[in-house]
Amino acid sequence: MNRPRPRRCIPPYPRPGRASLWLTAAGACAAVALAGCGSQVASPASSSPARTASTVTHAAGPRQRAAADAARIIADFRRPPGAVRTGLIASLDNPAAGIGNADVVTMTRWWRVPGQPRAVLSWISAHLPPGFSPDGYGSATFRSSTGALVESRGDMFALSPVPGVLPQRELVVTAMPYQGQTALRTDAQVAWLPARSAAERIPSGARAVTVTPVFGSNSDRRGDRLDHEFTVADSARVARIVALANALTVYPPGAYACPASFGGAMRLAFLDHPGGQVLARFTAQYGGCGIASVSIGGKTEPALSTYTTSGPLFQDRVLAIAGVRWPHQPGAPAGVGN
Questions:
Q1: Which residues face 188 on adjacent strands?
Q2: Which of 258, 274, 318, 326 is the most buried (most CB within 10 A)?
Q3: Average pLDDT, the chain
Q4: Global pTM?
């Protein structure tokens, strides 16, 4: 299961929270100024060199890498034949959709292109820079100042993420009829994850980990009784669990529409010795958006993602390191196990 990927509609559009496939219901977005609503989820050869944003130096910080990535994406955009770059086109003062968290770098260009919007977008889709793949589309109908109905359309193309640094890298292309041609807006949008500070990491004095299942509102007594609390005191295993927790990335801030969660979770207490003082607490949810709430030294820290860079859930990795099996996933319907 992949971590839900956020999207957002840009004002003045409605904000559904996040997106995966864009809505194509023009009626839901009618009367707004451009293509609009998003829904949640995330190559042809080019004559130019296969240089993409992934070539950005790793020496820079996350925000600087995102800015360099966005600059490369916008520079590598292959403009359709006859395209003329312009300044701001007022009818396209917002992109059709976007990435739904606060830490995003965006770079924008406008173009005037011969031909109709659908034909222009088809050409762009067939001439993507290396590494990009379709990632959704949207359309909307609105009434122009002359009273005519005008359709706008946007396509989104994704580049694979840079794990732990750049979770989303997108090219958003929005097109609409314009003075007998097509007005085109291109947006390179790159989300970045802030690095975790030393204060946000498990203290080095952790010598034991107590792991407790939280059954939530969807508790099944017959299944839940098979899952049990346990404590890991072996120094090598504790070190691996601490390293795993410290490697989790910050969950992007923002408002998201998440899959159902019934309160099931894995709760971890990191102790200075078995039965001793609690140095940090993690509560990693099953279901939902896959968020782990964190408290270190009694202070609440930024939430983390339970999805590790290697793929498996944080909770599954903890159980594997400890050599423990929970037959029934906490909070899951009856019959669902690990």
A1: 107, 171
A2: 318
A3: 77
A4: 0.58
